[in-house]
Recover the amino acids of this structure.
């Protein structure tokens, strides 16, 4: 069973093909777990920490024409998926038509089939500045040569928006009488 959920914190939609256990906000559906088992995908909690072939991941994602650049972030950015974690991937999809649910679920399916680990896909085009900034802390898997300038523009814009947002949060906290660390 395919699931969609809106992340209330960052205001972006997360796409997930499956659930392998009682994860928060994802439900617990035995049908999905069986589908993952049939595809050879096991929950990382069942296998402990396991390495991820980042070159293979880059090749899989690079083979999808709709993706301009991709980043692996979160706990898997060093190439290891820890027990209880999934693989967090952020992608920029230039073509708005390719951002439909079916295309995004196909991307997740290809990654899960190739690596045998659950995947959480973030679409950078629609993500908020906090999630985009978090993704930029990860490891860039690839940037298409003709999209390098667009990636640099995205990077600069994301950092500027994040800094503006943090300064706004600091002002709001100060207005309410809370002390906060400097944002400079």
């Amino acid at each position: 069973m395919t699931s969609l959920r809106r992340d209330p914190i960052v205001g972006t939609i997360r796409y997930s093909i499956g659930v392998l256990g009682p994860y928060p906000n994802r439900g617990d559906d035995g049908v999905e777990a069986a589908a993952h088992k049939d595809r050879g995908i096991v929950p990382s909690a069942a296998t402990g920490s396991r390495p991820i072939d980042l070159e293979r991941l880059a090749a899989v994602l690079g083979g999808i024409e709709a993706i301009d650049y991709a980043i692996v972030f979160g706990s898997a950015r060093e190439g290891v998926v820890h027990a209880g974690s999934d693989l967090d991937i952020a992608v920029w999809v230039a073509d708005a038509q390719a951002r439909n649910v079916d295309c995004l679920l196909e991307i997740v399916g290809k990654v899960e089939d190739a690596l045998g680990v659950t995947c959480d896909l973030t679409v950078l085009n629609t993500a908020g500045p906090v999630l985009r900034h978090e993704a930029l802390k990860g490891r860039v898997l690839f940037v298409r040569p003709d999209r390098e300038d667009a990636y640099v523009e995205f990077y600069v814009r994301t950092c500027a928006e994040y800094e503006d947002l943090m300064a706004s949060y600091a002002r709001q906290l100060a207005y309410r009488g809370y002390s906060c660390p400097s944002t400079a």
